[in-house]
């Protein structure tokens, strides 16, 4: 559970870092539109992940452990960055790429929630590791149920390229397989699902095989 969560959290961090580092260098309306779309996809993914946790993971953990407060710190942390993400999400939807984009405002919004988000992404792993004192089988069943719902977000031509393009297969020496799919799926993502919004995936920090790459928009 902790390893799976760590992979997802690292995906979020890589994605947000790639946005933060490249956003000062987008100049044309087309590039700005792609940045805003890429940002929206990442934020949709983050919000769906945390909504899924609050709907499925947290209540089940409270029931399984008999501790109604076990995930309270995590719930409070969600609230600490929720409004900032919503603000940036709205910015990606209403901003005219030709006339309305302000790199200063864009960065200002990220700065308003990124520290709280990072703290949560880091500390939630320790919460999961501390569950090792509870029986494994009920936790495994709960995790499988939650995983099914949390992964059901967005369209394939948005979430698949985002997930593959922000996943580093070299994490912990490459000993984990994530995303847990056959190699042919990477080819399907690259040559099929990524085609519709291919300009947006230029911002990804990794290629679709999970290898880190030089950020496209850095000078």
Explain what you see:
This is Hemerythrin-like domain-containing protein. The protein is an all-alpha fold and 219 residues long. The chain has one domain (2-155). The longest helix has 37 residues, at 29-65. The N and C termini lie far apart (39 Å). Helix 6 (156-165) crosses helix 7. The chain is 66% helix and 0% strand.
Please report the total strand number as a whole number: 0
Which sequence of SSEs, written as H and E, runs from N to C? HHHHHHH
Backbone CA Rg: 18 Å
Q: Characterize the largest beta sheet: strand count, sense, and whether it forms a barrel.
A: none
Determine the structural class based on helices, strands and strand pairing: mainly alpha
Shape: globular
Tell me the strand percentage band.
under 5%
Low-confidence stretches: none
Gap between N and C termini: 39 Å
Number of contiguous helices: 7
- Give the proportion of residues in helices: 55-70%
Mean pLDDT over the residues: 92
Write the layout of secondary structure elements.
Blueprint: H1 2-22, H2 29-65, H3 72-94, H4 103-129, H5 136-150, H6 156-165, H7 183-193
